[in-house]
Amino acid sequence: MDDLERHNPQRPKGKRSTKSAPSTSHGLTARIVGAFGRHYLAQLDDGTVLACVPRGKRAEVVCGDRVTLAPGDAPLAIEQVHARRNALWREDLWRSKMFAANLDRVMLVTATYPGIQHGLIGRALIAADAADIPSTLLLNKCDLPQAEAARAEMRLYRDLGYEVLELSVRTDPQAALAVLTPLLSGQTTLLLGASGVGKSSLTNLLAPQAQAPTREISEALSAGKHTTTATRLYDLPGFPPGSVLMDSPGFQSFGLHHLSVSQLQHGFPEIRARNGQCRFQNCTHRDEPGCVFTTDPQAISASRLALYRTLYAELTSAAPR
Ligand SMILES: Nc1nc2c(ncn2[C@@H]2O[C@H](COP(=O)(O)OP(=O)(O)OP(=O)(O)O)[C@@H](O)[C@H]2O)c(=O)[nH]1
Ligand SMILES: [Zn+2]
């Protein structure tokens, strides 16, 4: 087992990882604050932002990583990726790919309109659980008439033990700030949400500098074509030091193929709660006789059981979609 595997117990099965280069006493310590394909931005502790590239084709570097940069001309070489506390993956067409590291919390944004996407929420909650990262659900646009019905739908998650916060970013930004400030202070928070839920509105409220034109980034990196698929990390002005927000595209394709079946089951609090209550000890909760999730309709909601079975089939199929 090499360094990266030791520090990333949930990395995809069967993939070789790249050894970190040995550290040098002359290197600069920085945090990756922007990932644009193979081009990165790294921020030094004094706030200076530098363009950098990994040393070696197979090196895996993601937003939130702590790194050592080799001194030299821009773009600097990323010499070493420090041990990660945790990491999250998303999928492209062929594989799961790590995209964020060293998080304190995942905030999942949903909205009363255009509606709550339970499948996406379920996947993201499981991925965060498998990476041992706490998650909080935000229900935005509570000013709309659909709020009452949406609130009732979100009760499912409250009953499962998740924190669900309500806000209206556009119509009452001050109240939204008051609700979120205790959670964001001193923390690295990843914001995730489907298109149209108000994620950009929230990012712009919390980190107004996020609206900076991507041209500046393109110039810094000489890599304009990559800027649209960026994962970014923003300092939160007005918050205590160490308060940062990570913003990433790709919520629609949240990768779960790297998980084991036991991690999948652990990601469902209602399945965790009934551990050992099925007739067979190794019950997979699909079609076995005496399965508590088939015999007791109170054990799990029909939609969550359907999600579990879909994800089970995905995980155990030979290849990712
Ligand atoms: N009524 C209401 N509308 C909101 C609220 N927050 C955001 N919106 C609106 O919802 C729409 C989508 O907001 P965005 O912030 O662009 O949402 P997004 O999730 O970033 O969506 P994409 O840009 O498609 O990724 C915009 O028209 C916002 O003005 C809110 O609290 N209440
Ligand atoms: Zn069972």
Automatic annotation (TrEMBL):
GO terms for cellular component: cytoplasm. InterPro entries: G_CP_dom (IPR030378), NA-bd_OB-fold (IPR012340), P-loop_NTPase (IPR027417), Ribosome_biogen_GTPase_RsgA (IPR004881), RsgA_GTPase_dom (IPR010914). This is Small ribosomal subunit biogenesis GTPase RsgA. It comes from Thiomonas arsenitoxydans (strain DSM 22701 / CIP 110005 / 3As). GO terms for molecular function: GTP binding; GTPase activity; metal ion binding; rRNA binding. SUPFAM superfamilies: P-loop containing nucleoside triphosphate hydrolases. Residues 101-252 form the EngC GTPase domain. One of several proteins that assist in the late maturation steps of the functional core of the 30S ribosomal subunit. Helps release RbfA from mature subunits. May play a role in the assembly of ribosomal proteins into the subunit. Circularly permuted GTPase that catalyzes slow GTP hydrolysis, GTPase activity is stimulated by the 30S ribosomal subunit. Residues 90-254 form the CP-type G domain. CDD domains: YjeQ_EngC (cd01854). Keywords: Cytoplasm, GTP-binding, Hydrolase, Metal-binding, Nucleotide-binding, Ribosome biogenesis, RNA-binding, rRNA-binding, Zinc. Residues 9-18 have a biased composition (Basic residues). The gene is rsgA. Belongs to the TRAFAC class YlqF/YawG GTPase family. RsgA subfamily. GTP binds at residues 140-143, 193-201. Its cofactor is Zn(2+). Binds 1 zinc ion per subunit. It is found in: Cytoplasm. PROSITE patterns: ENGC_GTPASE, G_CP. NCBIfam families: ribosome small subunit-dependent GTPase A. It holds the Pfam family RsgA_GTPase. Monomer. Associates with 30S ribosomal subunit, binds 16S rRNA.
